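Chapter review: from sequence to fold.
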Amino acid sequence: MQTESRKAKYFALSKYVEAALKKAEYQRDENEVIIGKVPGASGFFAQGDTFEEARANLQDVIEGNVMLALQMGLEIPRIEGVEIKEIDYA
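The token string follows.
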């Protein structure tokens, strides 16, 4: 019986989140709410009443989206400076 090879993604989540937050852009909307987003990373956006709140919420969103992508086998958005390796396992 031949064992099927599987792939696992290998990277440091904390470094990924840190790099994504460095790329984030923030702006106020018409209601004075601060919107934070990571350009080129679909789904990486959040809001808050202050910059600190928007940034903290964005961090939670990035972590949550990455964890969901890993659980569901979806692609993780590429972030410059972070290498996501795939390793084989049985």
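Two observations follow directly from the output. The chain is about 35% helix and 25% strand. The first helix runs from residue 13 to 23.
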